[in-house]
Amino acid sequence: MATFTLVNMAEIDDVAPGYGLGHAWEARMARIALEAEQTGLAFYRLRPGSRSPFAHRHADAEEIYVVLRGSGEVKLDDELREVRPLDAVRVSASVVRAFEAGPDGLDFIALGPHYDDDGELVEDRWTDDPRP
Question: Does pTM surpass 0.90?
C-alpha cells in the first residue's frame, strides 16, 4: 500500500441512485478509493428540504460530521439541533442520527473508524417522512 493517497471526492461514484435514493441525496464513500484500512470517510449532499432517507447508529464506531455548505438540522436520538457551515458534531456509536437540509441544501462529511458490519439502520418516524 502507498504511504498516501489523494482523491477528489467529486470523482468518487455517487452510490445513492443505485439504492433508489438519488432524489433525496448524494453519497460518496471514499474509504476504498483512499485505500484506507482503518478510517471511513463519506461526503453527503442532501437536496434542499430533504431528510436523510434513514436513521442509523453503530455498535462501535464514533463518528464526526462536519457541515461544509448549507444549513439544516441533525437528529441525535430524540434531540434536534440546528447546523450550519463548519459545525462539527461528534456522535457516540449508540446514538441514532439523521439529517435534514434547509432551503439551500446541506453538504457534509462523515469521518470515523471503519469496522465491517458495524452500522445498523433504525426505524425512526422522523426519517419515515423523508419530505421532497
Answer: yes
pLDDT tens column, 18-27: 999 999 999 9
Backbone angles phi, psi at 125, to 5 degrees: -60, -30
Which position has the higher pLDDT, 17 or 126? 17
Number of domains in the chain: 1
Confidence band for 13, pLDDT divided at 50, 70 and 90 = very high
Q: With 0-12 CB in 10 A as exposed, 13-18 as middle and 19+ as buried, what is 72?
A: buried
Q: Is 132 domain-assigned?
A: no
DSSP 3-state of 120: strand
CB 96 within 8 A of CB 124: yes
Could you tell me the residue range of the domain that residue 89 belongs to? 28-121
CATH number of the domain within which 62 lies: 2.60.120.10
| Interatomic CA distance for residues 81 and 113, integer angstroms | 24
